[in-house]
């Protein structure tokens, strides 16, 4: 039976090493022999025994109460995404193998209604992805934004493209490290939430085998919520795009996320999106006319 003990251990150790004593009101100094906090200091801050915390850090979250988890999260200064990840790890540790594998499978294709919904957004790129970063569907601008990827696959994967198609990724992302870190953190979050997702585990295995950069970033155990922020791209046709994004889970399909990109009104990016939409419409019309010629010939 597989367990998540190594993930628990590595996550807690990495978070403890990141906290400086001064951040939690403890004396620092140059003579400390560990990076970050000592186990005894985390135990004191969380009001548990050193032996008990040491057991947790060895990877055993079985039977740990929510109160203790909250205390550990507070002692380690975990943000919301990290706190949720810790609770996900605890749930996985306490679930039976049979129960753990009963989670509903994430859809691999979009319902027609979802694609219709995407198509109603015309002001910016919009797409739906799963937690493995597969693009399951997009509106016209979304397909135009990721045109190079959609030409190669009807369901491109953003993490695979970022790490295994570096010519495309380095040109498309002005800061590849930031984009790559975000992809890994999303995958790490998903792995903690659903450790029995076989497709996700296969993707992680593939990327770990083929990309040393992915292996290094995966080992950092960083997690994140991908709900709002900014994205920066360099599109091969329209150039620099500085976009705002909003993301939301779908109530009907909790394993899927809807992401909407928008540009500041009157900005160069807004002009670039209009140009991108015009180029995409022209290509779609030319493609339709070409198919019509083929049918008549």
UniProtKB/TrEMBL annotation:
Residues 111-276 form the MmyB-like transcription regulator ligand binding domain. InterPro entries: Cro/C1-type_HTH, Lambda_DNA-bd_dom_sf, MLTR_LBD. Signal peptide: none annotated. It holds the Pfam family HTH_31. It comes from the Bacteria. PANTHER family: BLL4672 PROTEIN, BLL4672 PROTEIN-RELATED. This is Helix-turn-helix transcriptional regulator.
